[in-house]
Amino acid sequence: MQNDFQTISVGTIPNYTVTIAPGLLEQCGQLLQRVIPPCKAAVITDTNVAPLYLERTKASLENAGFSVCSFPFPAGEQSKNLNTLSQILEFLAQNQLTRTDCVAALGGGVTGDMAGLAAALYLRGIRYVQLPTSLLAAVDSSVGGKTAVDLSAGKNLAGAFLQPAAVLCDTSCLSTLPPLFFADGAAEAIKTGVLFDKELFTAFQEGLVRPGSEPLPRVIARCVACKAGVVERDEKEQGERKLLNLGHTVGHAIEKCSGFTVPHGHAVGIGMAVIARAAETLGWAKEPLAGCISACLASNDLPTGTAFSPEELAEAALSDKKRSGDTITLVVPERIGHCVLKKLPVAELRSVIRAGMEG
Fold first, then answer.
1. pLDDT tens, position by position, 275-326
2. Is residue 264 flagged as an active site residue?
3. How many whole angstroms separate alpha carbon 101 and alpha carbon 41?
4. Catalytic site residue 227?
5. Which residue has the higher pLDDT, 36 or 3?
6. Is 26 annotated as catalytic?
7. Catalytic residue, candidates 58, 127, 227, 354
8. Per residue in 201-225, is it b (16+ CB within 10 Å) or e — as a string?
9. Alpha-carbon gap, residue 276 to 289, rounded angstroms
10. Rounded CA separation 147/128 (Å)
11. What is the pLDDT of residues 209-221, one digit of tens each?
């Protein structure tokens, strides 16, 4: 199996390694020993993932000398809030974790965000590791050190930057993903292709990336490598890292308007389709791209439109963290593989969204 391992170094301070291979959960204790001496490990997971992977993860950690406690919370974006975060923090305190102990995030993006934020806050910061079990977490959210919970005003409005000590992506876990959740992750991978890599986009365009498909581990590795490069250059999102928000201004607005019933990746897919149509309609794109982006999303079981009005979406986007005073920064695709940041007055956002919905 060693030959199946792919590793990507993330050169932040401190740096860490993302390991991608099948069967990593059974080896996670042995692998984590290399970066964290055996200690008390609190495994944070959700009620969907726990029945599938918690026991094998605990067994591997315990066999490597870790003392393990676990906290499953109700699955879903609706749990990504201050109440659940408070419960996790109380759990860490009740189990007497110290600054030499660690948190392990076992699950998808919601789990990684909340467990990471709990680790950042508890005792003013303890180590944590990411054990992503969803495609979305594997290609995007497990890497880069963003942690957050949602507030009633909007998505990811309370958070901190804390880089993980390690990321172990067990590709075997992806075989249990329902189609809805695989598509959710595909949206973030397609986003990476639109941003940086036309060849990656083409793989999804041609239907080559499916559950269990041969290219899937390489796709994950490519997405991680692209994001790692950006994070190394702009860890705290002062400039280039804002590009990773392609599709997210409208996407987060859709999530909020739907009461978080529209999954994140699906909302981001719609957001990409909207901004691509707007880019063409408003003359920002350097070549036709809206049609191929929408077709690629649709062929990967993702929506490209929404019933929410431009007015509703613009209003919801006013609380987006990408807003700065009376301006908001949009990520605009100019061609497949290249996007730019465009700062606009907030007052113009509604017309941009309308152009993207009518274009």
1. 999 999 999 999 999 999 999 999 999 999 999 999 999 999 987 666 777 8
2. yes
3. 6
4. yes
5. 36
6. no
7. 227
8. bebbbeeebeeeeeebbebbbbbbb
9. 7
10. 11
11. 998 888 999 999 9
pLDDT per position as a tens digit, 320-347: 666 777 899 999 999 999 999 999 999 9
For this structure, is 242 an active site residue? no
Question: In this structure, what are the phi and psi dihedrals at residue 246, rounded to the nearest 5 degrees?
Answer: -50, 125
Can you read off the two tokens belonging to residue 131? Answer: 């054990």
What is the DSSP secondary-structure string of 244-309?
GGTTHHHHHHHHHHTTT-S-HHHHHHHHHHHHHHHHHHTT--SS--HHHHHHHHHHTT-----SS-
Note whether 198 and 337 are within 8 A (CB).
yes
Do 134 and 184 meet the contact criterion of CB atoms below 8 Å apart? yes
Distances (CA, A) of 24 to 21, 61, 209: 6, 12, 21
Instruction: Specify the DSSP class assigned to residue 141.
Output: I
127 is known as an active-site residue: no
Q: Is 199 a catalytic residue?
A: no
Which pLDDT tens digit goes with each residue over 231-248? 999 999 999 999 999 999
Number of helices followed by number of strands (H, E) in the chain: 13, 12
